Structure formats: structure tokens, C-alpha cells
């Protein structure tokens, strides 16, 4: 079965060239043999007919009534001897026989054959039926020993002798001639016939091959294009599956992080504003405020402590809310978003942030804008808390639908492996970027820290 696999691996043009070539060669040989045989038969028959017509015109007047004669009389035999043994006819004819329909030789230039009877072969039968028989070959009949002894092909002709009034064959003239030049004529005819058949077959095969090769190239090009498309679709399918797994994992982690965020917010409210409010509530029930004998100065001091605690609680609540609530950024460009979050960070920390913005991309989806805002906000907060806010830089680039945002500082850096999995900062950034199909990267060392996010944004409205 290896040959079958190798055969199927070939192109259609190659298969046609091999199979069609073999079939064409076989057809050429079959047609060539058929055409050559037909031409040879036609040449031999025409040559024999011409000779028979000439011999018949010379010999027929010398023959007696063959229906009444058993053997030729001496005068007729002598006339035939003189006619067939002289001149151009004598030089061409090798032998001559006159047959009766029962196989008896009535006359022959070989006198020992006269009166002998031989089996009637197919050639004689056909001639007695009225047809001319011509054959070019080495003589092989029992009565043709002398002709066979010459060892070369001769023109053997059987010509029926017909009665003038009835057209019935009453005898058959058999004669052999040297047929000089016939061999060359046959060779020339063979060469021409084989050449014609080979030329026609070759042209036919070449024309078909050109058409098949053209079609094969088209099919091969379509097959390659189809394979390329299948490969691309397979790659896209694999990428979609990978992204789907990433999205599922990110969704699970985001759900867990949201719960962690809620617990963190609850802890911040409990440890901050709730403590101040509880302290104020306890002071409201103190003896200094309840007892009517308390001095106004002492009561005022106690109220001042309560107002201070409530003010601190309100301040912390506002800070927590400002971190949770985003400004209106749905209609904002990347430039406006970056400047807004950078300015807010500079006011809050009283530090300077170098800003580089290069924007010429399309409008981004709201989810991407929120991601950009939170990414810069959290990265700058980390740079301030852990890197001291040294040489903070924000670089945002948007070209042809690709967005890259980079936040860096020149602090001391940190060990990424030491970050706890439950940490909300970096983990939250990574999960937020992953959930949108983007890529998150962080590089840190003695020269500082660089946090980068890149992705192809969704179309606006997705």
C-alpha cells in the first residue's frame, strides 16, 4: 500500500502525466499497428491489382474455354511459356500457375507441377469466390517449394479468371513477382503512418497536458489557500480557547477579588470611621455632658473632641468614597483620562509625575477606559508607597487600535515573589487586564519598577 500512498501524494498533473502518458503510448501503438496494417494491405492490394490487371490482359486471350478443358493443350501451354518467359513480364514473374476449382494445377512454368492436385487453401477459395488476393511474404504453400527456396518475400497474387457472359470464376491465376521497390514503399508507408500517429498522439497529449497542468495549478493554489485558511482558523480556534480559559480563570479570580475588596472596604470602615463615630457616641453619654453642674468650658472642650472625631470620620469616609467612585470618563479620550488621574495623584501626594501621551487611535470601550484609569491610579499609588515617588513617569500610546500604558519609577524596587497572593494591588491590576484579554507585565529591580499593560481594545459599545 506504500505505492498507493505515494501515488495519492502526487499532484493531479503528475498523476495525469504518468497515467495519461502510458495510456497515450499504448493507444499510439495500437492505432499505429492498425493504421500500418491497413496501409500495408492497401499498398499490397493496389500493387497486386495493377499487376493482375496487366497479367490478365496478356494471358486471358491465350486461355481456352476453361469449363471444357481439363488441362491446357500443348499450343496454349507453349503460347503461355513464350509470353510469360520473355520481355518485362518474364523479368518480373518468378512463377505462374493456373488452378482449377478442385485444386488441380492446369498449367505452371514448373512443368512437374502440371496435373498435380493440392488442397484448396483459403486464398484459392477467396479467389474462386471472385475476389483478388494479394500477399507480400515468404511463400509457405506446399506447391511453392521453388519460391520458398529463394528465401525472400515475394508478391503472391491470386487473380480469378471470369467468364465474359456470366462473370463466374472458372479458374484462378496464381503468380509470384519480385515486386522490386515494394519493400521500400512499405517501409516508407510504415514510417509515414507511425510518424503521423505519433505526431497526432503527441499533440493531443500535449494539449490535454497543458489543460490539466493549468487546472492542476489552479487546484493546487486553491488547496494551498484552503490549507492556509484551515491553519489560520485552527490557530484562531486555539487562541479563542486559550482566551476563553484565561477569561474563565480571570472571572473566577475577579469574583474572589471582589469579595476581598468588600472585606477590605468593610475593614477600612470598621477600623477608621466606625471607631471615630463610636468614640464620639461614647463621649456623648459622658458625665461632662449629662451632668448639669458641668462647667461650660469643660462641656465645650468635650463637644470639641466629639466634633473632631466626627470630622475625622467624615474625612476618612470621603477618602474611601473618592477611591471607589470614578469621575465621568465615558466621553473622555485617553489624553484626558491620563491627565485627570495624574493630576489627582499629584494633588494627593504633592509629587511630580512626568507624562508622555501619544494618541491617534480609535474611540475605546468604556471598560478599557476604566481599566486604564484604575491601572494608572493603582500603579502610581504603589510607586508612591513602595518607591517613594522617585521620578514617576506615565507613558500612554494608542496607535491603530493597539494601546500600551506604562507606569515607572526609579525607586528601590521589590521582590515580586514576596507579594502575597491575597494582595489587592498588583493582583487586582493583573486580573483586570486579563479579564479584557490584555497582557500585564512588571519589571522591578535596583533601577526601579516598570508596570506595563498592552491590549487590543474592544470596539466602543462592546
TrEMBL record:
<keyword id="KW-0902">Two-component regulatory system</keyword>
<feature type="coiled-coil region">
    <location>
        <begin position="216"/>
        <end position="260"/>
    </location>
</feature>
<dbReference type="GO" id="GO:0000155">
    <property type="term" value="F:phosphorelay sensor kinase activity"/>
</dbReference>
<feature type="domain" description="Histidine kinase/HSP90-like ATPase">
    <location>
        <begin position="367"/>
        <end position="459"/>
    </location>
</feature>
<protein>
    <recommendedName>
        <fullName>histidine kinase</fullName>
        <ecNumber>2.7.13.3</ecNumber>
    </recommendedName>
</protein>
<keyword id="KW-0472">Membrane</keyword>
<keyword id="KW-0418">Kinase</keyword>
<keyword id="KW-1133">Transmembrane helix</keyword>
<keyword id="KW-0547">Nucleotide-binding</keyword>
<keyword id="KW-0067">ATP-binding</keyword>
<keyword id="KW-0812">Transmembrane</keyword>
<dbReference type="InterPro" id="IPR036890">
    <property type="entry name" value="HATPase_C_sf"/>
</dbReference>
<dbReference type="GO" id="GO:0005524">
    <property type="term" value="F:ATP binding"/>
</dbReference>
<feature type="transmembrane region" description="Helical">
    <location>
        <begin position="12"/>
        <end position="35"/>
    </location>
</feature>
<dbReference type="Pfam" id="PF07730">
    <property type="entry name" value="HisKA_3"/>
</dbReference>
<keyword id="KW-0808">Transferase</keyword>
<keyword id="KW-0597">Phosphoprotein</keyword>
<dbReference type="InterPro" id="IPR003594">
    <property type="entry name" value="HATPase_dom"/>
</dbReference>
<dbReference type="GO" id="GO:0046983">
    <property type="term" value="F:protein dimerization activity"/>
</dbReference>
<feature type="transmembrane region" description="Helical">
    <location>
        <begin position="193"/>
        <end position="213"/>
    </location>
</feature>
<dbReference type="InterPro" id="IPR050482">
    <property type="entry name" value="Sensor_HK_TwoCompSys"/>
</dbReference>
<dbReference type="Pfam" id="PF02518">
    <property type="entry name" value="HATPase_c"/>
</dbReference>
<dbReference type="InterPro" id="IPR011712">
    <property type="entry name" value="Sig_transdc_His_kin_sub3_dim/P"/>
</dbReference>
<keyword id="KW-0175">Coiled coil</keyword>
<dbReference type="GO" id="GO:0016020">
    <property type="term" value="C:membrane"/>
</dbReference>
Amino acid at each position: 500500500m506504500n505505492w498507493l500512498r505515494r501515488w495519492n501524494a502526487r499532484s493531479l498533473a503528475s498523476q495525469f502525466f504518468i497515467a495519461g502518458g502510458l495510456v497515450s503510448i499504448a493507444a499510439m501503438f495500437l492505432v499505429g499497428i492498425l493504421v500500418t496494417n491497413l496501409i500495408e494491405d492497401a499498398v499490397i492490394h493496389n500493387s497486386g491489382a495493377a499487376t493482375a490487371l496487366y497479367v490478365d490482359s496478356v494471358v486471358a486471350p491465350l486461355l481456352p474455354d476453361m469449363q471444357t478443358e481439363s488441362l491446357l493443350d500443348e499450343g496454349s501451354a507453349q503460347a503461355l511459356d513464350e509470353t510469360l518467359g520473355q520481355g518485362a513480364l518474364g523479368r518480373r514473374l518468378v512463377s505462374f500457375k493456373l488452378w482449377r476449382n478442385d485444386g488441380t494445377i492446369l498449367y505452371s512454368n514448373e512443368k512437374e507441377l502440371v496435373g498435380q492436385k493440392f488442397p484448396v487453401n483459403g486464398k484459392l477459395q477467396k479467389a474462386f469466390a471472385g475476389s483478388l488476393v494479394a500477399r507480400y511474404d515468404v511463400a509457405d504453400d506446399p506447391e511453392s517449394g521453388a519460391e520458398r527456396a529463394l528465401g525472400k518475400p515475394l508478391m503472391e497474387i491470386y487473380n480469378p479468371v471470369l467468364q465474359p457472359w456470366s462473370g463466374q470464376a472458372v479458374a484462378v491465376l496464381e503468380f509470384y513477382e519480385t515486386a522490386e521497390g515494394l519493400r521500400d514503399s512499405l517501409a516508407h508507408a510504415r514510417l509515414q503512418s507511425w510518424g503521423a500517429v505519433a505526431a497526432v498522439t503527441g499533440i493531443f497529449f500535449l494539449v490535454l497536458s497543458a489543460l490539466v497542468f493549468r487546472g492542476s495549478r489552479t487546484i493546487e493554489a486553491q488547496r494551498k489557500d484552503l490549507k492556509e485558511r484551515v491553519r489560520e482558523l485552527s490557530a484562531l480556534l486555539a487562541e479563542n480557547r486559550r482566551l476563553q480559559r484565561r477569561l474563565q480563570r480571570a472571572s473566577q479570580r475577579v469574583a474572589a477579588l471582589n469579595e476581598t475588596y468588600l472585606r477590605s472596604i468593610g475593614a477600612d470602615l470598621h477600623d477608621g470611621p466606625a471607631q471615630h463615630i463610636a468614640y464620639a457616641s461614647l463621649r456623648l453619654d459622658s458625665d461632662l455632658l449629662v451632668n448639669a453642674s458641668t462647667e461650660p468650658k469643660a462641656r465645650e472642650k468635650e463637644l470639641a473632641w466629639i466634633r473632631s472625631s466626627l470630622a475625622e470620620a467624615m474625612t476618612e469616609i470621603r477618602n474611601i468614597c473618592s477611591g471607589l467612585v470614578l469621575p465621568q470618563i465615558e466621553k473622555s479620550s485617553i489624553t484626558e483620562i491620563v491627565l485627570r488621574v495624574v493630576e489627582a495623584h499629584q494633588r494627593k501626594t504633592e509629587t511630580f509625575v512626568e507624562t508622555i501621551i501619544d494618541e491617534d487611535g480609535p474611540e475605546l470601550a468604556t471598560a478599557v477606559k476604566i481599566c486604564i484609569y484604575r491601572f494608572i491610579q493603582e500603579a502610581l499609588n504603589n510607586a508612591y508607597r513602595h518607591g517613594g515617588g522617585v521620578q514617576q513617569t506615565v507613558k500612554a500610546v494608542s496607535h491603530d487600535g493597539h494601546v500600551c500604558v506604562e507606569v515607572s519609577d526609579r525607586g528601590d524596587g521589590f521582590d515580586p515573589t514576596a507579594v502575597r497572593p491575597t494582595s489587592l494591588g498588583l493582583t487586582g491590576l493583573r486580573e483586570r487586564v486579563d479579564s479584557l484579554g490584555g497582557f500585564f507585565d512588571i519589571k522591578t529591580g535596583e533601577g526601579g519598577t516598570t508596570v506595563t499593560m498592552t491590549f487590543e481594545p474592544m470596539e466602543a459599545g462592546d
